[in-house]
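Entry 14. Ran structure prediction on the chain below.
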Amino acid sequence: MMAMLFASKVILGSITWEQVPRLLKQPVADILIENGCEFLITEEEYLPQQA
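Output, structure tokens:
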């Protein structure tokens, strides 16, 4: 639930990726990727790995 809230805020631009709490970054990243917004993730470790 909190991850969805933070993902929505990142998408809307009311917060940046850097403002997402560390413990929520992975679930927020998963939501952003599912919604085609991976370009908002600024840390490589949370981006999908290319095979």
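The chain has a mean pLDDT of 95. Will compare against last week's run tomorrow.
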